[in-house]
């Protein structure tokens, strides 16, 4: 079906090419669960998904005659890479999850910082 090359790219061999319009149904069939929207699959192979380790994970596709195709094996590889990346602990330097400060709160923080700098003579 397919094999992973040493450079991390997938190479298809004797696989059935799945066109873009059939990708959501193929994802549902291969991975189970609900069928994703076609735009979701486009995002997977375009921008990709940011994994837990910070890297972008993209669904492998091949352009043939100006059209986008993937394989069931590449869908499985995408799922496995995503699962592996989410098992890595997130960086401790990342902003903690929680509500974002409101504009007034951010402004207050800036004013406090300016006052501290003036008090230090900076």
SSE layout and pairing:
Elements: E1 2-4, E2 10-12, E3 18-19, H1 23-31, H2 38-45, E4 49-50, E5 56-57, E6 62-64, E7 67-70, H3 72-87, H4 103-120
Antiparallel strand pairs: 1-2, 3-7, 4-5, 6-7
Helix pairs in contact: 1-3
Protein described:
Residues 83-108 are annotated as: Disordered. Residues 83-97 have a biased composition (Basic and acidic residues). This protein has one domain. It is 42% helix and 16% strand. The chain has helices at 23-31, 38-45, 72-87, 103-120; strands spanning 2-4, 10-12, 18-19, 49-50, 56-57, 62-64, 67-70. The protein has a 3-stranded antiparallel sheet with strand order 3-7-6. Strands 1-2 form a two-stranded antiparallel sheet. A hairpin with a 5-residue loop joins strand 1 and strand 2 (10-12). Helix 1 (23-31) packs across helix 3 (72-87). It starts with a strand and ends with a helix.
Strand content: 15-25%
N-to-C SSE string, H for helix and E for strand:
EEEHHEEEEHH
Number of helices: 4
Number of strands: 7
What does the largest sheet look like? 3 strands, antiparallel
* Widest β-sheet, arrangement of strands: 3-7-6
> Averaging pLDDT over every residue, what do you get?
82
The shape is elongated
Contiguous runs where pLDDT drops below 50 for at least 5 residues: 1-7
End-to-end separation? 65 Å
- Percent of residues in helices: 40-55%
Structural class: alpha+beta
From the alpha carbons, calculate the radius of gyration and give it in angstroms. Answer: 22 Å
Whole-number total of structural domains: 1
Briefly summarize what is shown.
42% of the residues lie in helices and 16% in strands. It has 122 residues and is α+β, with helices and mostly antiparallel strands. It has a 3-stranded antiparallel β-sheet with strand order 3-7-6.
């Amino acid at each position: 079906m397919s094999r992973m090359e040493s450079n991390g790219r997938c190479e298809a061999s004797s696989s059935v090419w799945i066109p873009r319009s059939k990708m959501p149904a193929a994802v549902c069939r291969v991975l189970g669960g609900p069928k994703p929207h076609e735009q979701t699959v486009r995002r997977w192979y375009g921008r990709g998904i940011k994994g837990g380790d910070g890297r972008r994970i993209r669904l492998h596709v091949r352009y043939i005659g100006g059209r986008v195709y993937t394989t069931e094996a590449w869908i499985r590889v995408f799922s496995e890479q995503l699962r592996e990346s989410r098992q890595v602990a997130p960086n401790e330097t990342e902003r903690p999850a929680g509500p974002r400060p409101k504009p007034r709160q951010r402004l207050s923080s800036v004013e406090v910082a300016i006052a501290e700098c003036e008090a230090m003579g900076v």
